[in-house]
Design brief:
single chain; alpha+beta; 3-stranded antiparallel beta sheet; 22 strands; 12% strand; mannosyl-oligosaccharide 1,2-alpha-mannosidase activity; EDEM1/2/3; EC 3.2.1.-; metal-binding; 6hp_glycosidase-like_sf
């Protein structure tokens, strides 16, 4: 629904007015006076939502979202008594038998993912985080996860492409007035949670529908650029949103191609990721070729037309700050260092990351900050990769900003405006499941995540899962035989992305105690965002 006009000072000192619109179907924020390029059908509650709160999204679900989303954060912090108390509270009070319409994507990553993570922690025979066992535990969290997933399955029915509806009613299935448009990230980022559930239960249904959606989206990529758009019609397969980028509407699709391979070992997931990463480098990346040497502008990933690769706008959004962390996972550490420095410079300027930042105007296009974790996540992963104390200073800077600008009487509040530092009476559940967890792990060098010898992976909601053989051994062979649009036939033998500019080995030991980015390049980025 259209929001109130938000004044912003333009480069000439005059106030410019933009109308902001949040698409409740795909999560994208649209700026401008004309929505004909992306129509938003009237919603039942339209007119009742405060127009100033354009960034409110319908994710709550009436099923104790924050309690569930924070379960494994308690475990990672070693607080066994509170973890056990919270798990018992979930078992005793949470039910998904509700007349409640929820987003399939949000319910999957926030609720299903957390239930599975907590179940894995409880049943882990090694108990790396301390005694997190529950007396007389009878797989109740796994049963709850199964019940929720079954209630989400109708979203995958009656779509001609296999791409799911964006919303489903937990009691009644897909609402009769449901929209046929969804975003790439929302439809294509279900495979990790659904795959874990399938492999724990020995039931291929959930992984099958999630993998079918991924392959359907992959088959719709541009023949010219290999890129995907950000909003698609689930019945026709036509791209409604032709923007290709790394932020809202696209981000976790790429993340889960790689993480699905890490967890399940399915080579086709890595092959798709390699191809996608190469196309991103070819068409989205701007600036000099190397991060820490040479002449030219700092590397930046922009939003382009999926068919032509031409620039569509001059903004990036805060969700893109996850990408340096993803680059760390494939060993492209040098490029990650440069991109991370850009987002950190924006943080230094405002003490937060605006939801959308116009790098040409050097000003926020959409000024709110809902306590997002992506910059913290990339900071944590870069520190783990380099052990450079610089990233501890970044984490401290972020922590102090959160304490100074967002702390409230009963928690931490969304910033309504990063310049004015006005607050909203809202704390997203991902603040506890991700932002706090990554900050805690950044400073806790002795945490079992780092010292136990176990291998762990974080979901896109920051839920921790162990990487072990039980998830690599499925009870079924090739669950989608003969599917068209599948990845190339070549079989990579190592976790390595194609066409990346560098790797971990290019960060020498002597650089651990120097600035990760040379000082002249740091100043260049500071000038780019208006810090100097």
């Amino acid at each position: 629904p259209p929001g109130a006009a938000q004044p912003r000072l333009g480069g000439n000192g005059h106030k410019l007015k933009y109308k902001f619109h949040l698409c409740m179907n795909c999560g994208m924020v649209w700026v401008g006076r004309d929505l004909r390029a992306h129509p938003v059908p009237p919603l039942p509650w339209q007119g009742h939502l405060p127009l100033s709160n354009l960034n409110i999204n319908d994710v709550l679900g009436n099923y104790s979202l924050t309690l569930i989303d924070a379960l494994d954060t308690l475990a990672v912090m070693g607080n066994s008594s509170e973890f056990q108390k919270a798990v018992k509270l979930v078992i005793d009070t949470v039910s998904f038998d509700k007349d409640s319409t929820v987003q399939v994507f949000e319910a999957t990553i926030r609720v299903l993912g957390s239930l599975l993570s907590a179940h894995i922690i409880i049943t882990d025979t090694k108990q790396p985080f301390g005694d997190m066992t529950i007396k007389d535990y009878d797989n109740e969290l796994l049963h709850l996860a199964h019940d929720l997933a079954v209630r989400l399955l109708p979203a995958f029915e009656n779509t001609k492409t296999g791409i799911p509806y964006p919303r489903v009613n937990l009691k009644k299935g897909v609402p009769p007035d449901s929209h046929n448009e969804t975003c790439t990230a929302g439809a294509g980022s279900l495979l990790v949670e659904f795959g874990i559930l399938s492999r724990l239960l020995g039931d291929s249904t959930f992984e099958w529908v999630a993998r079918r959606a991924v392959k359907a989206l992959w088959s719709l990529r541009s023949n010219n650029t290999g890129l995907l758009g950000n909003v698609v019609n689930i019945q026709t397969g036509h791209w409604v949103g032709k923007q290709s980028g790394l932020g809202a509407g696209s981000d976790s699709f790429y993340e889960y191609l790689l993480k699905s391979y890490i967890l399940f070992g399915e080579k086709e997931d890595l092959e798709m990721f390699n191809a996608a990463y190469q196309n991103i480098q070819n068409h989205l990346r701007r600036g000099r070729e190397a991060c820490n040497e040479g002449e030219g502008d700092p590397p930046l990933y922009v939003n382009v037309n999926m068919y032509t690769g031409q620039l569509m706008n001059t903004w990036i959004d805060s969700l893109q700050a996850f990408f340096p962390g993803l680059q760390v996972l494939i060993g492209d550490v040098e490029d990650a260092i440069c991109l991370h420095a850009f987002y950190y410079a924006i943080w230094k300027r405002y003490g937060a990351l605006p939801e959308r930042y116009n790098w040409q105007l050097q000003a926020p296009d959409v000024p709110f900050y809902p306590l997002r974790p992506e910059l913290v996540e990339s900071t944590y992963l870069l520190y783990q990769a380099t052990k450079n104390p610089f990233y501890l200073h970044v984490g401290m800077d972020i922590l102090q900003s959160l304490e100074k600008y967002t702390k409230a009487k009963c928690g931490y509040a969304t910033l309504h405006h990063v310049v004015e530092k006005t607050k909203e009476d809202r704390m997203e559940s991902f603040f506890l499941s991700e932002t706090c967890k990554y900050l805690y792990l950044l400073f806790d060098e002795e945490n079992p995540v780092h010292k136990s010898g176990n291998k762990f992976m974080f979901t896109t909601e920051g839920h921790i899962v162990s990487v072990d053989e039980r998830f690599r051994n499925s009870l079924w062979e090739d669950i989608l035989p003969g599917q068209e649009g599948s990845a190339p036939k070549t079989k990579p033998t190592e976790l390595k992305a194609a066409n990346f500019s560098s790797n971990c080995n290019r960060v020498p030991d002597e650089r651990r105690y120097l600035l990760p980015l040379k000082s002249n390049y740091m100043r260049q980025i500071d000038r780019m965002v208006g810090l100097i």
